[in-house]
Amino acid sequence: MKTRISLIAVLFFSLVFSGCQEYLEPNDDNRLTLDVVLANPEFAEGFIMKAYKGLPTNYNFNEAVASDDAVTNDPASNIVSMVNGGWNAQNNPIGTWGGAYESILYINTFLENMDGVEWSWENTMQNELFAKKLRSEAHALRAWYNFMLLQKHSGVGTNGELLGFPIVDKVLSQDDNYEIPRSSFADCVNFILADCDEALKNLPNKWEDTGDVLVDQVNGARNTNRINGLAVRLLKSRVALYAASPSYSTSGFTMQEAAQMAADVLNNNGGLDGLKGSDLEFYNDPSSSEIIWASARLTNQTNWERDNFPPSLFGEGKTGPSQNLVDAFPMADGTPAETGASYENRDPRLGKYILYNGASYHGGTIYTYSGSGIDAPGIDKYSTKTGYYLRKFLQEGVDIDPALSSPVGGQHFYTYARYTEALLNFAEAANEAVGPNDVIGGFAAVQIIEALWHRAGIPNTYLAGLDQAGLREVIRNERRIELCFEGHRFWDIRRWGLTNVLKETATGISIAPDQVSMSVVNVEGRNYDAHHIFGPVPYNETLKYDLIQNEGY
User: Fold this and answer.
1) Which of 281, 361, 490, 507 has the most CB atoms less than 10 A away?
2) Which range of residues forms the domain containing residue 174?
3) For the chain, how many structural domains are there in total?
4) Are 249 and 433 in contact (CB under 8 A)?
């Protein structure tokens, strides 16, 4: 875990945008000393920017493929070996250990040295605002990265205890003991929540201009793509929900606490007012009110479409939604759909997120029935394995026809936090704590699902009279639908302790040439064991010192 800081790497972003010639002159060792860095606020902020740079900006849909929601037609994908029994401490393609600790190092370095930085020499008030804002961002980002460690590497250790990760809250010096043991799961949760509370002292819910130029230079809309107070509140609700879930419930956290933290998000973001149909396709509009925190918008992009368009549109069709997921979308009246049910009279979200046989798209029709052409299963190496193609997150207007003189791109951005997750966090926690109809923080669980169904165009008749167990199934299904391809399903079934679902075979649909006869077919097995409820600690880390591994790894 002993790590050295390369200031050149940390400060590259700031250096590029600095116009000061003196800083372009290399020192004897071609590095900037810490004293030089701290004398320049742009350089000092580079530690924070380096932590931001560690956040994802590209959807690869690996966690959907690792779950029962999708398969890939890419035989070289490391997820293929993972789902076929190869998920272990030496092969963990969805781990985050090294990257998270690297970002935490930059953040800790910043927190330990920022008090000596003059952020604004022109204005004392602005200098104080910068210091408060940046300190809060640092605590927020550290909480974010620590949750990634908690989600992907916590579990029941070989000592029988529920463990989290080694908490590193400072920059380790040569005199420190680097053999930091894994803390208890509960201690890790409390550490994350404490960082969140520290961040909320000075982070606004949203970055908005006030009209005061000095204030807006610090806390204004120019910070749109940086973490904000609402994202931190959402993170708190996510952490608390995980901690209270069946796989982690021995930690002592309760669903009542999780519901209260989620209600805090709702009460700071207008509750259920303003939900609208366009929220369902938030990824088409970076200004959507559904988005709490997202990466910067990149224009003229084609990579997601090249990877996932059907081959008839010159894509590689890598992510194939499963029949399992398609079956999760209810009928138009909210009643559960039968396995392999017709696409007619279904939840409108099905057509928004998944391309199925007969779907209108890109000025034409996608056909996947037997004999229909290149988009049908098994016709081409880029053809779907399941009979379905991904639609969610892809820009329909992108055109990658090689006959064009240049491709037509679209806008891409990665969403870190969206409001619907907060709504679903609350619904789940409130239902588990007090049932469908009792109120926590001004809301009831069934009220949230009614609002989400109304937004989707589904009547709430089916919800009437559901007991706690019945609404639990609906809420879990809503998470699967609303948050599909956003990295939640893989971890949801694990925190729920659903070892039976871990092993469910991913299925697809076989459609006869008459497009009437259809049958569900097995596509790809899921070779997970019970211990795969938790992810592993990297094997190499356990070689460095007596770091406890999770059971089964």
Assistant:
1) 507
2) 7-254+292-296+534-544
3) 1
4) no
Q: Would you say residue 241 lies in a domain?
A: yes
pLDDT digits (tens, 9 = 90+) for 338-362: 999 999 999 999 999 999 999 999 9
Distance between CA atoms of 402 and 410, rounded to whole angstroms? Answer: 16
| Look-up of token digits 């959907």 | 64
Tell me the two tokens of residue 1: 């875990």
Q: Is 331:349 a contact under the CB 8 Å cutoff?
A: no
Read off the amino acid at residue 362: H
Residues 6+ apart with CB under 8 A from 462: 330, 333, 334, 335
Pull the structure tokens for residue 108: 């800790």
344 lies in a domain?
no
Residue-wise pLDDT for 478-533, tens only, equals 999 999 999 999 999 999 999 999 999 999 999 999 999 999 999 999 999 999 99
Q: Which CATH number characterizes residue 150's domain?
A: 1.25.40.390
Work out the burial of residue 516: count CB atoms within 10 Å of its CB; fewer than 13 is exposed, 13-18 middle, 19 or more buried: exposed
| Chain position carrying tokens 């969610």 | 392
pTM of the model: 0.93
CB atoms < 10 A from the CB of 302, how many?
19
With respect to residue 220, please indicate whether it lies within any of the assigned structural domains.
yes
Reported as a single tens digit per residue, the pLDDT across 137-164 is 999 999 999 999 999 999 999 999 999 9
In a domain, 199, yes or no: yes
